[in-house]
Each structure stands twice: as structure tokens, then as C-alpha cells.
Backbone:
């Protein structure tokens, strides 16, 4: 079971790869980082921090993934999900941005996954 997120010196240095065959085994004496598949000598081992949006990865581990299929945004429709107004708002959002959306019970929806546009800012000077 997932109990808590913690920083683990040295183990946190592994690069992330979604779906990496890694098990974190915790015991009173320590933590084991176990590869569930065989690896060749010299092959890089990856950790798997799970399917998390970039904001969570950045806040918890100091990195982001681009593009990240887990990036999404919860948007309140401000009206019942099954109303005509909700249908109009969902249609307008989809036409405007071509972003997939999923309706949530209670009138909200999740937009995404979607790509984030990276803009390079000019340097000082």
C-alpha cells in the first residue's frame, strides 16, 4: 500500500521512467530498490514515480516530463453537468482548444491530457 511520499537520498537520484519494472520494498531496517526484470551490465536502471502530473513531479522530485500524458486541469462548469449550459460550455472549450475532456459528477470536468507549449524567454541584456 502507498503510505507516504518521502525523499530517499541516493535512491532519489535514479532517473524516472513511467512503467519501469522497479519495486520499492520497505522494512524496519531500510529500503530495497529491486529491479523486477533482468538488466545487462552497465544498463541504466530507472525508478518509477508513478503516473503523476508535472506539477506533482516538480514539487515532489524537482523535475517535469514533457509531454506528460498525466497533465490535466479540473475545471468547474458552474452549472449541472447534465444541463444544456454545460453542453454548450464543453463544446465551446473543445472547439477552441481541441483538448479532450471528461465530465465529472457535480458539474466539473477534467481537461487533458494536453501538451504544454514551451516558450523560450530572451536572455538578460
Residues:
Amino acid at each position: 500500500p502507498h503510505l507516504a511520499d518521502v525523499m530517499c537520498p541516493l535512491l532519489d537520484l535514479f532517473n524516472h521512467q513511467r512503467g519501469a519494472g522497479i519495486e520499492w520494498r520497505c522494512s524496519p531496517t531500510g529500503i530495497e530498490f529491486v529491479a523486477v526484470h533482468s538488466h545487462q551490465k552497465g544498463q541504466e536502471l530507472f525508478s518509477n514515480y508513478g503516473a503523476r502530473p508535472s506539477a506533482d513531479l516538480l514539487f515532489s522530485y524537482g523535475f517535469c516530463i514533457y509531454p506528460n500524458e498525466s497533465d490535466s486541469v479540473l475545471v468547474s462548469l458552474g452549472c449541472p453537468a447534465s444541463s444544456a449550459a454545460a453542453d454548450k460550455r464543453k463544446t465551446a472549450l473543445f472547439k477552441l482548444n481541441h483538448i479532450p475532456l471528461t465530465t465529472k459528477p457535480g458539474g466539473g470536468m477534467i481537461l487533458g491530457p494536453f501538451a504544454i507549449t514551451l516558450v523560450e524567454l530572451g536572455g538578460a541584456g
About this structure: The helical segments are 54-61, 84-97. Residues 16 and 49 are 6 Å apart (CA to CA). The chain has a mean pLDDT of 74. Strands lie at 22-27, 30-35, 73-76, 101-103, 108-111.
